[in-house]
Specification:
alpha/beta, 6-stranded mixed sheet, 12 strands, globular, binds glutamine
Length: 239
Amino acid sequence: MKLTIGHLYPDLLNLYGDRGNIQCLMKRCQWRGIEAETIAYEMDDKIDFSRLDIVLLGGGSDREQMLVCEKLKEIQKDFKEYVENNGVVIAICGGYQLLGNYYKTDQGMIKGLELVDMYTEQGEGRLISNIILQSELFDMPVVGFENHGGRTCINNNKPLGKVLHGSGNDGKSGYEGVVYKNVIGTYLHGPLLPKNPQLADWLILHALQKKYGEQTELTPLDDSQEKEANDYICHRFLK
Ligand code: GLN
């Protein structure tokens, strides 16, 4: 079995080292004997979505998002087809905002990919915090760090999880992220996947099942250290 991961525009969308998430996906495949390769796309590259099994769209500053948004118009149709065809996507922070219809900032309007019916508007102040969610998709709480000026409204879509600590999508709905088909969008930055192996495995499993059939299963890995770290964070922030 083999998975190909597409990393979109890492030169611009790689805030807080979102690239580390790719390494985590690759390693968790390789540890199970699943071949894995990553293709990093720069702005001038042509993307053939039919080659990809997982797409990662990382975080970026408003300025970088504005630059990328021009490019996204060109790939919108193919990307949409990939998503509607159950392609797996993990989109983080700036990348998460770009999944939606638009991101409105004081500097102007950034047009989104319109892959998920949601939108983002800049609010007063930034939402910066450690964050913990409980997601219906996993037993273990999802832990991470958020830092965003945008407030995201996911309309009638399903959130990734309920906020147990932190701000989440807009600081008031009590929810964080979005799940649409095989797409996960989230504000959780940096080492999202190393910290949350269940989320990494969700992406790998859905990509494998799409490619090799629903019966495909994942061999469990020893995640005792990740579980210990998760427990520690939960105890630290949830009284
Ligand atoms: N520029 C966006 C915001 O501030 C996203 C930032 C990010 O990716 N951390 O809301």
